[in-house]
Design goal:
alpha+beta, DUF6557
């Protein structure tokens, strides 16, 4: 597989733990031209991107300074395979998601909302 091209840098962003005190890491795409700082959050979800584009991304300097190679590899593989273990499955899920969004916008599917509190209460 050969890299395609990408305007994004792969960034592992650290989100401080608010409720449980445990920080979490999120792999995102960052476009330096559109943002002055990744804190302003001009960031993009990556899990549905073709793997050839992943191969073309540079790794953001923040990521290199804050994570070792094994941590970077682990976070990237997790994100790449979040929706499936092969590109065909990932693209099927993405297409299904796009179709569902289209149906919701057209009013074919009626949604309902649930607060986080109600959701958590329902788990008890």
């Amino acid at each position: 597989m050969k890299p395609s091209s990408s305007d994004l840098q792969m960034l592992i962003k650290i989100d401080p733990g608010k409720d449980n005190g445990t920080d979490s890491a999120e792999v995102v795409g960052y476009n330096e031209i559109q943002s002055s700082s990744f804190e302003t959050e001009k960031i993009y979800s990556l899990e549905f991107l073709p793997w050839q584009e992943w191969l073309a991304m540079e790794i953001h300097p923040f990521t290199i300074l804050n994570f070792n190679e094994l941590e970077i590899f682990s976070h990237v593989i997790y994100e790449m395979t979040f929706a499936g273990f092969d590109e065909h499955t990932i693209q099927q899920k993405f297409s299904h998601m796009e179709e569902t969004v289209k149906k919701i916008k057209q009013g074919e599917i009626k949604g309902s909302t649930l607060s986080l509190k109600d959701l958590l209460d329902g788990l008890d």
